[in-house]
Structures are given as C-alpha cells and as structure tokens.
Amino acid sequence: MILSLLSAFVFPARMSDVGHTQFAALLFPISRPTYRIANAIRAHFVEPVSEDSRPDQAIETENLALKEQIQRMTAQIDMLQQRAGERASLGGFESFCNRFEVTGTDGDNRDGLTIGGLSFSSVRVGQPVLSSGTVVDLIGRIDNVGMLSAHVSLITDAGFAVTGHFVSYSAGGAQENKTLQAIVRGRGGGKLVIDTLALADLKDSVNVGDWVVLSDDTWPRALQGVRIGRVASIQPLPKQSLFAEIQLASETNLLHLNDVWVMTHQP
User: Fold this and answer.
1) First to last CA, the chain
2) Using one digit for the tens of pLDDT, what is the confidence trace for 162-212?
3) What distance lies between CA 118 and its chain's CA centroid?
4) Does residue 66 share a domain with residue 149?
5) Do residues 140 and 205 both lie within one domain?
6) What's the pTM value of the predicted model, to 2 decimals?
7) Containing domain of residue 73, as a range?
C-alpha cells in the first residue's frame, strides 16, 4: 500500500509504469481499492479544500463513513494478498491444483470436510487434498464426488493410513531420515499417531518438533516430501512399552479450514 501511495503522489510516471499489461491486470483486485483509498486521502488531506459550510455533525458523519470504507477496503486488500501468498506457497503445484471452499465438516466422530464450488468436472475420487496455508501440507484425499460438492477424508480420520519419514531442522538445515519409515494412522478427533516403531530405533534420531513428510509410492511422485504432521510427543505405547506412541500435530486445525487445494491433475 505504501508503494502504491508513493507511486501516486511522489514518483514520476515513467518510474512507476512497469509496462506489463498482464501483470497490472493480475494486481487489479488489489490496486483498485488501493487507488480508491489514495484518492480519498488525497481529497481530504492533500488537495486544498474550500471552507465547508455544512454543519459539524454532517462532516463528522461523512468522516466516519469514509473511515469505515477505508477499513473495509484494507480488509479486502489483506484477503487478496493472503490469497496471492497462498497460491505462491504451493511451490509449483498451482498448475495441478484447484481451490475449493469448505462448506461443512463431518459429525459422528468422523474427520472429514465437504467442499463446494461451481464445477467438479475435474475432481475424482482418490485425488490428494492439500492445505491452503503458507506452507503446503497433505491433509487428505477425495473419497466422494457429487455434482456441486465433494467429500474429503482427512488424514486424521479413523482408519486413514499413509507412510512417511522423519525430517529434523536445525541451524545447519534439514536432515532427512529416510531409513526410518513410519506408518501414520488417523484415530479420529484430529489425532495422528505412529505406533509401529520401537523406542530404541528413535533414540537420538527423532525428537519432538521434527516433521513427518510423505514417503509413499501410492501417492503422486510430486507430493513425496510434502509435510504430514509435526512430532508433538513421544511416549511408550501402553501395554507394549518397548514400542513408541508418537503423537503428531497438524500445522492448523483441519476441521477449521476455510478452503483447500485439490490436486486435480498429475504433473
């Protein structure tokens, strides 16, 4: 927004004109409200105004209305910038994914989402579903498709299973442990667990805060290495103390997502 104001009032046109029509059209949803805000500010604070003979109450009412309009426009700009950031964060997946809004969540102790949109002609059962946050996470797959909606089975749903490996992060960068394969299972209620690894195998190699990423040949090659969940706790498995019960946590609450990306095409 600051750059837009500088371009409007300070920089000459030859400096601010990038000369790319397509780029300007792409930013039109953001530039239009910014331009309107800049014009409103300029009209009230920059350009000289003649003495206003209206009652003080009328002027105050108009100023309040203008303030509310600026707040609404600012919120719209923030939303559009977030959408742009989300698409950029797909890291190359944007050509193969379509975004759909979440219209509902499951009940009866099932972890699933209903997504809606104008067309589901490209959506198929089994397609991967990714988060729309700042970093891409695997969150489930399509298990039912209708004419105007589809259902997503989340990775936390009871019976959902996927294979991954551990990645730890430090100042030296990411360290992958591909030799230690883990079966991640959903238990319902937003829970993800790994309960097939011996505690001895985890010693000095897996810690709280590490991530589990996809390493499963039954999923598309382009998704290998996509995050599944973060290690939240490591405890002995009840009744089998030689094995570990690793609780995983998702980056966000999967039942509170506003929208998701469906991988409708293969790279």
Assistant:
1) 36
2) 999 999 877 677 788 888 999 999 999 899 999 999 999 998 889 999 999
3) 21
4) no
5) yes
6) 0.65
7) 2-88
